[in-house]
Predict the structure.
Amino acid sequence: MNDRDRDRDNGTIFQEVVSKFSEMIGENTEKSIIQYDELPQYDLFLSQVKDYLNDKFKHDKFTNSILQNYIKSEVISKPEDGKKRGYTKLHLAQLVLLGYMRPILTTDEIKSVFRLAFNDINNREDDILSWEDTFKLFSDLQQKNIELFFSGEEKDLEEIIRRHLEKYEFNNEDKERILIFLLVMILVAHASNIKKLVTTLVEEFGDKYK
């Protein structure tokens, strides 16, 4: 085989792998990005919350003990008082966002990030952003990061942020806190997508060459 044929073969193999990879990511994109409207509409027991998270984050193990420690440490809100099914859609929104952060940040770091936008995690009155708006914004940031990975073109993240936050009026301190919070969330979305891409590649091709 001469050098020209070898280069052509290498180029063909590369294109086949990239094409297969793009196809795999396209198939997994809808599954990997959890939309706010897809969260359970009904309240859950702790065991149901655990099962939901383990279904969505298959490579991260959640247990009742881990979830209770997040509550005790005030990383997420405590369950609703006096209710057997004490975990609401708000808790699921918090925990799904935490699930994306968990492989990247420590528990104390996650708590600090949440505090930027929500102050006291157990007091809804001092939230700077709503959890619903935050969750929807994060989902859009994830999608935009995937598009950026494949297109190689700069995307207008400012428009996404403006659309989600246009109803808010921030003072200067809150504006700074929210900008820092959003920067962290953009980086988390990017890191989360990279992790999924790497995991997909390894699972698809890792055993092929044993």
The mean pLDDT is 83. The chain has one domain: 36-205.
